[in-house]
Design a protein that fits this description.
Number of domains: 2
CATH topology of the largest domain: Quinone Oxidoreductase, Chain A, domain 1
Order of helices and strands: EEEHEEEEEEHEEEHHEHEHEEHEHEHEHE
Distance between the termini: 13 Å
Number of helices: 10
Number of strands: 20
CATH class of the largest domain: Alpha Beta
Radius of gyration: 20 Å
Length: 348
């Protein structure tokens, strides 16, 4: 059996190649891929050859946000059947290291994460027509859920974990900085949790328009209205919770200034070394909280999408066939017109 794969060789060097596929093992399934999203990390690999210390050192199949249809099952698989529509979790903790044994699976020392160049050899990703996947990584989606919606389970899981790290936001005032896919989904999660007010900042009107559809109560373009956040800093701040999704130093500074004493600042976006206003964090007794990937939240994300509790459709701004992956990556990198760009795959 043959499958096409989307493989990155170097910066801006993406090639569609054909590889041979075997048969699923006892606990595995063969999945015919349907939809897959291009993530910010995929874009970093494509444009920069990596991010931070993580570099592409050998050809890598990208992609870690995908859905598909089960085409065959291994002999020991009982929870899935041919024809099941599934979202695929890219996360495979070992279950045996000290952090897994402590229940911190997202901090696994031997984590295998699809489409990641962290390990050597690299962990190959999900941008392909067909793939053999451990059955445990496949989560059935609702009958009314489209495969494009199902492919948004992974980024939603990231946001559900961030919300868990933030604590309750019902009745609270929430600020989201950065209205990319993760920021928009953080808005949706906060809205579902009953936040009283959700203000979103970004540099692009197109992204802010999507945030409004996801539940934002006010959108601020920090490029065209740079003084809009100033009022929120009065009397030591206004917001109870911040989800910082941009990793941009100016956004971090203004968000901490706008956070109330004893508020919670959740850093979702990642970057290199970034200055932060430590004096404000100390003087306002702010809780500075990191958040890293997810574990049980993947199943929760699939359930929320399947139940219609969170509508992910507004973040999907374009879809390209796998053969046009280059164009898909080019559009995904243009934040003036794109949020989440998907690749689609053959169904035969």
């Amino acid at each position: 059996m043959q499958t096409r794969v989307c493989k990155l060789y170097d910066k801006h060097d993406i090639r569609i190649e054909t590889e041979t596929l075997g048969e699923p093992g006892p606990d595995e399934v063969l999945v015919q891929m349907s939809a897959a999203g291009i993530c910010g990390s995929d874009l970093h690999y494509y444009h920069d050859g990596g991010f931070g210390p993580i570099r592409v050192r050998e050809p890598i199949i990208l992609g870690h946000e995908a859905s598909g249809i089960v085409a065959a099952t291994g002999k020991d698989v009982s929870m899935l059947a041919v024809g099941d529509r599934v979202a695929i979790s890219p996360s495979r903790p070992c279950g045996e290291c000290e952090y897994c044994l402590d229940g911190m699976f997202n901090h696994c020392l031997n984590m295998r994460f699809s489409g990641s160049a962290m390990r050597m050899p690299h962990e190959q990703g999900l941008f392909r027509d067909r793939m053999i996947v451990p059955a445990a990584q496949c989560h059935r989606v609702g009958d009314a859920t489209t495969m494009a919606e199902a492919a948004c389970s992974e980024p939603l899981a990231v946001c559900l974990h961030a919300a868990r790290m933030a604590g309750p936001t019902d009745g609270k005032r929430v600020l989201v900085t950065g209205a990319g896919p993760i920021g928009a989904l953080c808005v949706a999660v906060a809205a579902r949790a009953g936040a009283a007010e959700i203000v979103v900042t970004d540099l692009q009107d197109a992204a802010l328009a999507v945030a409004r559809k996801m539940g934002a109560t006010r959108m601020i373009n920090a490029a065209t209205n740079p003084d809009a956040m100033t009022a929120y800093s009065a009397n030591k701040g206004y917001f109870h919770t911040v989800f910082e999704c941009s990793a941009a130093a100016p956004a971090i500074k203004s968000a901490i200034a706008a956070l109330r004493p004893k508020g919670t600042f959740v850093q979702v976006g990642v970057a290199g070394d970034t200055p932060v206003p430590l004096n404000l964090i100390v003087s306002k007794e702010i809780t500075l909280q990191g958040t890293h990937r997810f574990h049980e939240e993947f199943a929760q994300a699939v359930a929320a999408i399947s139940a219609g509790e969170i509508d992910v459709r507004p973040i999907i701004t374009a879809t390209y066939p796998l053969a046009e992956a280059q164009s898909a990556f080019d559009e995904a990198g243009d934040r003036s017109r794109a949020l989440k760009v998907h690749l689609s795959f053959e169904t035969a």
